[in-house]
Amino acid sequence: MAPAVELRELSKSFRVPRPRSGGLAARLSNFIAPKTDAVPAVDRLSFSIAPGERVAFIGPNGAGKSTTLKLLSGILQPDAGDVRVLGLVPARQRTELAFQIGTVFGQRSQLWYQLPPRDTFELLGRVYEIDARAHAHRIETLTAVFGLAALMSTPVRHLSLGERMRCEIAASLLHSPRMLFLDEPTIGLDVSAKAAIRELLLAESAREGITLLLTSHDTGDVESVCDRVIVIHRGRLLWDDSIAALRKSFLTAKRVTFWSEAERLDVALPGVRVLSSAAHRTELEIESGATPLGHVVDAAQRQTSIKDMAIEDAPLDEVIRALYAHAERRCAT
Fold it and tell me: How many other CB atoms sit within 10 Å of the CB of residue 6?
C-alpha cells in the first residue's frame, strides 16, 4: 500500500536580512542593496506515514514544523527533495489535494464568526462540490457523532471555545477527507474539553480510517491520540518511532510515592531525590541506573510499614525535554 505521506530529502530555506554593520557607507550600501542570508527551515527531511496512522509531529519552537505542514499542504514550494501526500505532489496539485485533506488550526477558524455552524457547513458543501443529499446526510451524521444538535443554530460568537473546536473538527471532516492535519487543536481548552476533543479524534480516525498528523506542545494530545511520534530539531529528523520507544530511550527517572505508617521517610541513596513530603506521604524521584528500585523499596520498608506505593514514569514532557537537550549537546560538539 502506498504511503499517505512521503518525504524524501525535503529542504526549504528562507532568506533573512543580514545584520547591519560597518560605517555609514556600508550601511548605506546595505540599505540600497540589502544583503540576505539563507536560513534553512527544513533540512533534508525524510519520513513516511502509512494510511490510517495517527502520528504526532513535534519539536521545539523554530524546529520547522509549520514550514513542513505548509510544504505538505502545497502552500510552499520546496527548494529540493520530493514530497507526496495521498499520491499527489502538493505544490503542483494543490487543488486536487484540497479535496482529499482536512485541516484544524487551534488558533484559526474556518467558521463564519457571525453565523451559526449550520450555515458554514452548508457553504462548505458548495465549496467542495458535494451532492446536496449526500452532504445533508454527512452533516446529520457528524452532528450526531460530535453532539452538535444544540449548537447548530447558535452564532459561532456565542459558542464556548470547546464547542467551537468540536464544530471546527466536524467542518474539516464534512468532505470525507482521507487525511487530517491538526495544529494545536486543544490550545486554550479546559481539561474536560481537551478530553472530549481527543476522544472524538481517536474515534473518528478509527471509524473512518483517516490518517492524522498532529502538532501540539501538549503531551496529553500526543499520548491520547497518537501511536507514533516524529520529532524534528533545526529542520532535521531527530526521532521517528513509537511513544513507548521514546520513553524507553530517553527516560531519565522514575517516580515512587510511598504512603507509610511513619509520618516521614528518609531514603538517602545515590540518585534518589525527594520531590515532595507530607504527613505519611513521600514522593521520590529515582535516576535511571543510579539505584535499583528494589533497593529503594527495601530501604523504605526497613524504616516503617508501607501502606501503599505507586510507581510511575516521568511525564512525557520531561522525556521530550531530555531528547531536545541531547540534540542541543550533539549540535554543540
Answer: 18
Please give the Cα distance from 68 to 235 (Å, whole number).
9
Helices (H), the chain: 24-32, 65-73, 94-98, 117-127, 132-145, 161-172, 191-208, 219-225, 243-250, 293-303, 316-332
Tell which residue, 160, 159, 123, 167, has the closest CA to residue 142.
167
Per-residue cell: 181:
492535519
242 φψ region: left (φ > 0), alpha (ψ -120 to 50), beta (else): beta
3-state secondary structure of 1: coil
> How far apart (Å, rounded) are the C-alpha atoms in residues 222 and 228?
9
C-alpha 247/C-alpha 70 separation (Å) is: 29
- Cα–Cα dist 10/68, whole Å: 9
Residue whose grid cell is 520529532 = 231
Please state at what angle helix 161-172 crosses helix 117-127, rounded to 10 degrees.
20
pTM of the model: 0.81
Written in H, E and C, the secondary structure of 155-189 is: CHHHCCHHHHHHHHHHHHCCCCCCEEEEECCCCCC
DSSP characters over 243-281? HHHHHHHH--EEEEEEEESSS------TTEEEEEEETTE
The tens-digit pLDDT sequence of the chain (333 residues) is 789 999 999 999 998 777 666 666 666 666 666 777 888 899 999 999 999 999 999 988 888 998 999 999 999 999 999 999 999 999 999 999 999 999 888 777 889 989 999 999 999 999 999 999 999 999 999 999 889 999 999 999 999 988 998 999 999 999 999 999 998 888 888 888 889 889 989 988 988 899 999 998 888 899 999 999 999 998 999 999 998 888 888 777 788 999 998 888 888 888 888 888 888 899 988 887 788 888 999 988 998 898 998 988 777 888 888 888 877 777 766
For 271, residues 6+ apart whose C-beta sits below 8 A from its C-beta are 286, 287, 289, 290, 291
CB 256 within 8 A of CB 284: yes
**Phi and psi dihedrals of 228, rounded to 5?**
-135, 150
Dist. CA 288–CA 292, nearest whole Å: 8
